[in-house]
Write a structure and sequence with these properties.
Layout lengths: L5 E12 L2 E12 L3 E5 L6 H9 L6 E6 L8 H5 L2 E4 L11 H9 L8 H8 L14 H13 L5 E5 L7 H16 L3 E6 L2 H7 L2 E6 L2 E6 L1 H8 L4 H9 L8
Helix pairs in contact: 4-5, 8-9
Keywords: Antibiotic resistance, ATP-binding, Cell membrane, Membrane, Nucleotide-binding, Translocase, Transport
Organism: Nonomuraea mesophila
GO biological process, one term: response to antibiotic
Length: 245
């Protein structure tokens, strides 16, 4: 991949919490318009890695650039080009769906129309519902809407479809595919093998904080001689199959 085609670069990232090494010398380069899946068991370092890329955590060592920006030094500029959806939404409970999206809409010079964002995540019929009255899956979709409203050039999605029903899950997949069509770079943290195989151009597999494989989904399967991505995951990490659920 040419340097000019690189949207996200993480070099030799390390992060320790007390005696626990959460991320151990992880390096990634993600191309413009690429969907990179970040896969691993619970505690493998996935969320810590993307939080360092987003500037939400400071690496103990290593270097991050997102569209050439340093998340620590260029925080204000990064917010204009990076959208982040984390596992737990922390939004004002008393505001309605439309009010929350409208609030974030006001932060950007060229945002998506509020109605377009509502349609994209399937919340048009909940536009007047307060955040506290939404189901867990609806709150998850609202956090995705907030991440997308500013037309970011890079998006981090952490457990995009956890807790969503099959119909809504496929709707979210279609939304991610639309982002790729628009040239948006996506870092997708996931446990869902079907999701990874459908959406991801490449997969970074983490185990105990280290990057143990980086390839296409088909390449991971072929490289391990496995029957499918589930089996390749187990072969590469030594993890139990039930940790995928």
């Amino acid at each position: 991949m040419e340097e000019t085609d690189t949207a996200v670069e993480a070099a030799n990232l390390r992060k320790r919490y007390g005696d626990t090494v959460a991320v151990d010398d992880v390096s990634l380069r993600v191309g413009t318009g690429e969907i990179l899946g970040i896969l691993g068991s619970n505690g493998a370092g996935k969320t810590t890695t993307v939080e360092m890329i987003a500037g939400l955590r400071t690496p103990d060592s290593g270097r991050v650039r997102v569209l050439g920006l340093d998340p620590g030094r260029d925080r204000a500029r990064l917010r204009q080009v990076l959208g982040v959806q984390l596992q737990e939404a922390q939004l004002h409970h008393a505001l309605t769906v439309t009010e929350l999206i409208g609030l974030f809409h006001s932060f950007y010079p060229h945002p998506r129309p509020v109605g377009e964002v509502l349609e994209l995540v399937g919340l048009t019929d909940r536009r007047t519902t307060r955040f506290e009255k939404l189901s867990g899956g609806q709150q998850q979709r609202l956090s995705i809407a907030v991440a997308l409203v500013g037309r970011p050039r890079v998006v981090i999605l952490d457990e995009l479809t956890t807790g969503l029903d099959p119909r809504t899950r496929r709707r979210m997949w279609a939304a991610v595919e639309r982002l790729r069509d628009e040239g948006v770079t996506v870092l997708l943290v996931s446990h869902a093998m079907e999701e990874v195989e459908r959406l991801c151009d490449r997969v970074a597999l983490l185990d105990s904080g280290r990057l143990v494989a980086l390839d296409t989904p088909a390449g991971l399967v072929a490289g391990t001689g496995a029957a499918n991505l589930d089996d390749a995951f187990v072969a590469l990490t030594g993890s139990r199959a039930e940790e995928l659920s």
